[in-house]
Each structure stands twice: as C-alpha cells, then as structure tokens.
Amino acid sequence: QVQLVESGGQLVQAGGSLRLSCAASGPIFSYYYMGWFRQAPGKEREFVGGIRWSDGTTYYSDSAKGRFTTSRDDAKNTVYLQMNSLKPEDSAVYYCATGPGTQYTYWGQGTQVTVSS
C-alpha cells in the first residue's frame, strides 16, 4: 500500500516562494507518475504539475508553467513542488498523488497554502 504525506504549506505573502514536499512510502514503481493537484474552496480540483518517476520528465498546467517546478529525490522517495512568484489565486489545499501512468490511485491528505495580497 502506497502512502503519501505532504508538508510545507503555510501562509506566505504574494510574490513569495514555498516548497512543498511529498514523502512516499510503499511500492513506488518506475512507471508511476507523481502529480500535484490543488483545490480552492468552491472550486474543482485542478492539476498543477507532475513528474514521471522513471526518468524525471516533468509537465505542468498553463497556470504553473514558469513559476512552479517539480523535482524528485530518489533516495528519499520524495517529490517536491517549488512554487515561486506566488499569487493570491494560488491559495488552495495542495495534494500529491501517484499511480500507474496518470491513474492517480493514491492520494495524500493535503497541505494548505495561503497567499496573502
């Protein structure tokens, strides 16, 4: 059973930066993808960015491109989401998820990011 634990969310001012972490335990296979999602109150959950575990290929939503970067540390089985130039509209609960391909079977509990204007 895969378990994911996010951390790093906090209150930050607009223009600031945060790095979220997602620590994975259990069987993570090379063909898994690790994705970052977010959900703001009253809005649908949206994809932010992700990384292919096998070779580190990354991909992002249009809103994240140029500001957010995802990376992984194989030794720690941890994936990161570096968020720069944060905006109030980036405020949300951020989740990491993983599974075969882009079938995000396993989800973390989420971490709150609040960006003040």
Average predicted local confidence, pLDDT: 94
Strand content: over 45%
Largest sheet: 7 strands, mixed
- Find the structural class using helix and strand composition: mainly beta
Query: What is the H/E string?
Result: EEEEEEEEEEE
> What is the number of strand segments?
11
If you compute it from the alpha carbons, what radius of gyration comes out, rounded to the nearest whole angstrom? Answer: 13 Å
User: Which ranges are low-confidence, i.e. pLDDT below 50, for 5 or more consecutive residues?
Assistant: none
Helix coverage percent of residues?
under 10%
Shape estimate: globular
Structure description:
- The chain is mostly beta strands.
- It is built from no helices and 11 strands.
- The strands form 2 sheets. Strands 2, 4, 5, 6, 9, 10 and 11 form a 7-stranded mixed β-sheet that branches. Strands 1-3-8-7 form a 4-stranded antiparallel β-sheet, with no helix packed on it.
- The N and C termini lie far apart (40 Å).
- The mean pLDDT is 94.
